[in-house]
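#struct-help
A.M.: can someone run this one for me? Single chain, 251 residues.
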Amino acid sequence: GPDVTTQDLKQPSKEHQSNGSFVQSEILLPGPPGTLLERNITLANATTVELSCKLDPDSHLKSPQVTWKRGNETISHTSKTENSWSIKLVIVDSSNMGSYSCVLKGKEEISATFHLHVPKIEAREKPIITYERDTAVMVCKTHSTPMAWTWYMMSGSKPVVINESLRTDKYLIDRLSANVTRLRILKLTKEDAGVYWCEAAFELGKSEGKVKLKVLSIMAPLKPFVAIVAEVIILVTTIILYELYSKRKGK
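D.P.: on it. Structure tokens below:
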């Protein structure tokens, strides 16, 4: 599949886990027509990664010049066969993450890219819309287990950590499971509206998910009703005044 995670290493022929953690991923070039030559690899903890680019034996590109790059920096491959070139990386911190590409040059040039990143956070994409005095509930989750969860809110132009030092009668944080965290904001006011985000800390870096909160006045649902009532009152008043005017004119 297009994505590899350290939790999905069940097929020894493609990705497997040995002492510590070891991930293998290979891209066949040039691949079938329309193939996107990119691979996302999700890593949470220190891992040894082997990335390989294999030239299709039926390709008309023969004896290409092969270059590996990390971003724009050229690096050397660690092993090669007749039609395959590999690099082995020991990923120990966030500085080793990023995009690694192999470039094959001959009569034409083809390339493939591996993206190494920490697990993504699943959070609500659409804004949460609620009313004053209600409770807002925000949930973040990830498929890997982070070392720690942290919630933030924007106060003015600065982020503020939501923790035990803030009002416990206002903010409640629950870790529903190792992979899921929940923030509850009680007794909402209009001042609570804004951007909140959760941050998951992994051994190889941090990942975050943002949630936008909108707080409406408790009168907001009544506005359409009030507008209709006002229109009815104006219409009835107009009819009554017209009838009174008609009667006086008749007299």
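A.M.: thanks! The chain has a mean pLDDT of 84.
D.P.: also worth noting: The radius of gyration is 30 Å.
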